[in-house]
Model the fold of this input.
Amino acid sequence: MENGKFQILIIDDSTTFIKIAKDMILKHISDVQVWEAANGMEALRILGNHEIDLILLDVFMPVYDGFEMARVIRLNDKTNKIPIIFITGSDPNKELESKVMTLGAVDYLMKPFTDIELTRMIRLYLRFVKWEREINSKLDNKNIELKKEIEERRKVEKTLLELTKKLKESNLTKDKFFSIIAHDLKNPLGAFKNVTTLLADDFEEMEKDEVLEFLLLMKDSSDKLFSLLENLLQWARSQQGLIKCYPTEHNLYEIANNIVEIMQSMADNKKIKLKNNIPVELKIIADVNMINTVVRNLVSNAIKFTPLGGNVWIDFERNGDKVTVSVNDNGVGISEDDIPKLFDIGESHSSLGTNMETGTGLGLIMCRDFINKHNGDLWVESKVGKGSSFKFTLDLAGGVPEIML
Done:
């Protein structure tokens, strides 16, 4: 950020597109400065002289195409953390989606797009750029305080090792956080996009009642998307120790059913049967935002690793004053050697789904952290080729558990 403004760099060989995109951004976002580069050399000069916060990068350009440009940016220590949003043309085979993510992009946008689509995406990532800087500043201040305490009190080696481990985990979480946003928001955004596409394509042929029905679906989808974003931001705050887990009584069936509704479109695309077997009357003690996030991630993963025509179902088992919730599938399964890696933030374990879906590997770590805050456990039972069952425990309604900070 320079002069109190976010710095955005647009790299595209079309001056017409740059002007259009720049006008869109400046019209809707006031606290930004937009830089223009028609080729790779101009882009590198700007990156060398300015603190760029976000890059919009065209895929197809002469000399340096977008892929080569992204590799150069990622190899430079000064620029390798800058979020990149690829701008691409039509991609009916979905090949670009997978490729751009492997090059370190946080997202991509298809041409043509509206100013609302562009500025909404930019605002989202600028928000997390700001959040990352605040985290870095707090970490820097914390490091200074720790060094002073170490010098003054000569703390024992065990304390130093524990603090080093926490700082390492914090940095790993920060580096992967951009990816989890794309991972969690992609599915409900896809459903929203499908509804808006149908409405736009068939508007003239629709009756008033049909249009209203689609509008209500869009409203419901947007409400859920907003709620999802709020939950993710809340989790980010929890990593800084700013929020606590406050369990209260909730209906587990309603929680699971809401997730099924959100994920139904994703399941339908793969002809997967998605079922909620939780009884209507079952109530739990939990922080509803955290448990929503846990169930949503587990169901999304189950669909991702289940082939066409498979089954995904949410089930339960009472154990005294506890309930074991399970998200099950008959998908590809997980090898015994890979299971421990799923919950280790230091490991990079993220496989492509049965339909080439991508992920970050951070979702399960977040789920484990949230369940631990409920004094519960989260584990997986799986066999390669047979499927997986992700299980976690919660307290049944009847007594509020001790809060874990």
User: Anything to note?
Assistant: The radius of gyration is 23 Å.
